[in-house]
Amino acid sequence: MSAETLARIQFAFTIGYHFIFVPISIGLGVQLVLTERRFYKSGLAIDRATSEMWKKIFAATFAIGVATGISMEFAFGANWANYSRFVGDIFGAPLAAEGLIAFFLESTFLGVLLFGRSRVSKRLYYASAWIVAVGAHLSALWIIIANSWMQTPAGYVMSDKPGAVPRLDSFWAAIFNPSTFPRYFHTVASTWAAGGFVVASICAWYLLKGEHKWMVRRTIGPALAVALLASLAMPLLGHWSAVEVGDNQPVKMAAFEGVWEDEAGAPMYLLGWTNENEEYTSGIKIPKLLSLLLYNDPNATVKGLADVPKADRPPGELTFQSYHLMVAVGMLMILIAGLALILHLRGRLETSRWLLWPLVASVFLPFIAIMAGWAAAEVGRQPWIVQDLMRTGEAISPVVSTKELLVSLALFGLIYLILFIAWARIVHGIVKKGPVLEQSELPAQASRRHPVAATSEEV
Amino acid sequence: MDLQWVWYVLIGVLFVGYAILDGFDLGIGVLYPFLGRSRNERAVLRSAIGPIWDGNEVWLITAGGALFAAFPIAYAFAFSGFYLAIMLALFGLILRAVSLEFRHRDEKWGTVWDLGFFVGSLLPALLFGVAVGNIVRGVPMEVVVPKVPGAGLDYAGSFLELLNPYALLCGVLGLSMFVMQGAAWAAVKSESDLHERTVKVRSYAQIAFVALLAATTVATWFVVEEHVTNNLSRFFGWVAIVALIAGLCLGRLGMMRGNDAGTFFGTSLSVLGLVGLWGAGAYPSMILERAGDTLGAGVTVEHSSSHLTLKVMLIIAVIFVPLVLAYTVYVYKTFWGRVKTESPEY
Fold it and tell me: Is A212 left (phi over 0), alpha (psi -120 to 50) or beta?
């Protein structure tokens, strides 16, 4: 295998793995703000216990997210040295800003959130849940800024001389490049949905087992509401993002929908496959929808892939399928969260076991959609690492051998596998134990019976 | 104002912050299996850094980002050139972070996480010094990327060449520095038996640090004489020398008086001095070319990002570094005090 392929596999694997934990950190951080707010207002021990449980899951997830994030920070220099030399004038700044503006804030106050309950005032403790969440959202902003510049580079000047590199011309134009905001809000909404589904799924599990009902009743409603609102926002934000991609990365858009010839009144596929050799797409389609959505005109012409030189096309089928998988799973998320919320509001969710099982399993949905969405966005940009400026093949480290790449990839695989098993075990253990009240918080007669059950009766 | 110089210093500040703060995290990780004799003692050692290690590690993440932003050529050269060494350090940092956080939630795999915490701390604690030793000593370079003028330099040696005696000496010096720093923090946070043993280790670690520092200074004189003469002829070289000596003396004084916080201040000052010696002696070189080779001056501060990028970044740093320092101090004050051996927080 070529060095380029190995470097790409390694980046895809490590960033994909990292991004399992990032949405939980951001999305569960939002849920933590909600549960801490409830405790701040009610002062009830059960609200505290609930929050403590989510916090344990959050802490385990955050640790693995930070650890796998450090290797991303250095992956550019290690595996993509030519890329780093090429984009250094622009791409490095958002990474440094992320550290200074966001990540310090998040990590420092996480210490307060995890260990400071008895050391700071109630108000400051609640505030630190907010600060951690705000820090996480700022972190995401700077990372998306950096990634968006690779999609739609802006705010730079570049001479025609061979070996010239893009130089920063306008900081604001570079960071608020055309794709920054649509992609940022799309990404953030996906993490909110992930957080909501994680909490709702665990609550549904408790309902099936008949455990911790008192806690579920206080938690599942807000979680489902966030999951549903975020899932509903996804198609709208996705639409915004798609229109932007249609404007600025038309080749990627054509690959998303498998458009080959320039087509007036292009359809949108619900399901389908695209044949890269014979250059056609077939499947179940809605006529004219793509043209309508992209250009507000059912007969507008959508540019196709056929005019693009073969060397400049992204992998068609992979892009098409990732994109459609994301959309389909997103729809399923709306359906499940919507049904569950309606039943919950009517007080029938606890007895609707037919929905509880899918709700438990639904925790995987946002992650599938997120991975598929990232795959579509990144594979769809190929063969460019920076759209129209640098090819991925030119970006690798000249001095890193395939052997070294293989060894590091194998070690990443092994270590990350072990860590994943450990993380899953720990989260499973936390969920199994459930929210626990400390001895001193139990009502007098409760300690004689099952403590949690006793408390739930009183509440 | 010369922005390249400013950013050279600012990245130095980030390195100093990392070496002082995550330095004691790494040091405690290295000392962990030796100092923590019982379950509770090990829990005390973990609790000593539990609420703050996350923030400490951000110094490294920010330093990496700042290096990328301000000096992308040095960033690309070092991380791709020292590939396997960097990967080992990274795997160490990953293991360290996860082990520390998972250890107290996972009794069944306790031994695995104890080992992971130790190994994961030892690897970077040793390798950081090895890397510094190499870039101070000079490494073989070749022109691989003619596309980027004046900056297409790449590392031309092998992994094993990085493990030369001088670099290894620097690695051990770095390790002793982290251990000294770890013991000094552990002494601030522990009590009774554990505290007594920690105080002893702290004293030995400082003696070892001084001995290795002397040996490294002599070795540097022979290997890269210029580095030493630079320090002796520059204002900032003398600032570093004074900080180093003052830090060592203050540390010793603190130990003799049984003042743990004072000792920690002293060891931290000596860490600042040592990183300062590296920076003041090397300037304007960032990665030196091996002695005798003639491709040019190696990677220097001249290979920086544009004036505009440096200016924008400086504005961000001027606003946010003081803010970061303010809330870091606040959180350290919040968690000030010794961890009880009977009831460590973990």
Answer: left
Q: What is the pLDDT of residue A32?
A: 92
Q: What pTM was computed for the model?
A: 0.90
- Cβ contact (<8 Å) for B62 and A397? no
Amino acid in the structure at residue B134: N
User: DSSP letter at B317?
Assistant: H
CB B4 within 8 A of CB B69: no
The pLDDT value given to residue B163: 92
Distance from the Cα of A9 to chain B's closest Cα (Å) equals: 16
Top residue of B14, B46, B80 to mutate, by most chain A CBs within 10 Å, is B80
A116 CB neighbours in chain B (<8 A) are 51, 334-335
Structure tokens at B153: 């330099």
What is the ipTM, given to two decimal places?
Answer: 0.89
- CB contact under 8 Å between A115 and B64, yes or no, is no
Top-confidence residue, B268 or A304: B268
Nearest to B53 by CA among B84, B82, B18: B18
Number of A/B CB contacts below 8 angstroms equals 248
Q: Across the interface, do B309 and A109 touch by the CB < 8 Å criterion? A: no
Domain boundaries, chain A: 3-458
| Chain A contacts in chain B segment 279-318 (CB below 8 A) | 305-306, 308-309, 312-313, 316-317
Using pLDDT thresholds of 50, 70 and 90, give the confidence band for residue B146: low
Q: Which residue has the tokens 């004489």?
A: B225
User: Within chain A, which residues score under 50 in pLDDT?
Assistant: 444-459
pLDDT of residue B151: 59
